[in-house]
Here is the input.
Amino acid sequence: MSNTPPSPRPAKRSWAEPWKVKMVEPLKTLTAAQRSQAIRDAGYNTFLLKSDDCYIDLLTDSGTSAMSDWQWAGMMLGDEAYAGSRNFYNLEAAIQKYYGYKYITPTHQGRGAENILSQICIKPGDTVPGNMYFTTTRHHQEAAGGTFVDIVIPEAHDPKSEHPFKGNVDVKALEALIEKVGAKKIPYVCVAATVNMAGGQPISMENMRAVRALTSKHGINIFLDATRAVENAWFIKQREPGYEKKSVAEILLEFCNLSDGCTMSGKKDALVNIGGWLALNDRGLYDEASNLVVVYEGLHTYGGMAGRDMEAMARGIVESVQDDHMRARIGQVEYLGEKLHSWGVPVVRPIGGHAVYLDAKAFYPHLKQDQFPAQALAAYLYEDSGVRAMERGIVSAGRSKTTGEHYYPKLELVRLTIPRRVYTQAHMDVTAESVAAVWDARATAKGLKMIYEPKYLRFFQAKFEQLG
Here is the structure.
């Protein structure tokens, strides 16, 4: 009998996902040589890789989640009437109950809602403040003649800051902007919950109340990017005093009630593969939106979605606000992030909601930002293991519409985005070990040069080649 003492039990009990696997999708792995060829053929852009060539696909959490048996059952109840589908009314009721908005215009996905909101609210010369830009959001605002101004707190641009709500609006900066340009030149404040480009960082309820108080004083609307507002509600529950005993559903409703409407990509929190909506509380704006949606998306009772997709989204909303679901969803992201942090790999802190963000500047301090270090890091990661991630740095930031020069964001990141209810903890271990291997080889990394640049949203289709 061994004299070795037993290992101590962990202080915390383990948790497990609140679901069991019913169906599996087989994965394949390419050889190292095949991966090297694949990333070269893709112009070192992970968006241009074939899905079949990726082992663990962490490109995005948008439309990549696994639906439940209840959602799949709902797909069989699709009312594919062109007008007045019963599934639209089910979706409308779910949004009104859990998000609290009065009027709903469905769209094919979030950027359809962004386009319509921008067109009905923004006039040439307007200024649109927001807590850090997002790619498609800023594009639609600029296409409508507006100018985006970043009013996120400074901590959001510091990957090492442990501020619990790095998505907060800098209220003093917003107030100064209102005084500078005038309230009439600000059609709305765009508030993202959570802030994607800062590392999936949340905004607090206290901060949202302060923004509401200031905008109400000046008669300015607040429109949420509510794509991951449920995840934001979870962080409020975990980090903000007074909310620990409230449910995610209660917090979400309170948070949304501090705004005048939202754009939404249902492909994230709402656990579906396609779909979104624009929600408004103002009847006049809704009338404009429901008229314009007919031009760009489809009739105001389907907005580019099939009836079955609206039903799946209505049911996904109900599932998304369950505390057990959010505990497992955020827990898996934290598992990967904290493991990398414990190994000394530079990641954005604190760990955000939907993804772990690698700090590419810290990986490759020998590369200039216009040598696209984050783009290179994503390519090296794929080459090492077949894990597909995406760049969130200078390539995503794009160019100034006035000078044509690159935007140089303070953050140069690679996003490891975790789809909901798709991968196991073992997949997270494989991912962590691959990131660690790339970190260990960081001194030999080469930069990239851009050889093809699309006019709009270049990060989707740009191509690169390796320097040296």
In short: The two ends are 60 Å apart (CA to CA).
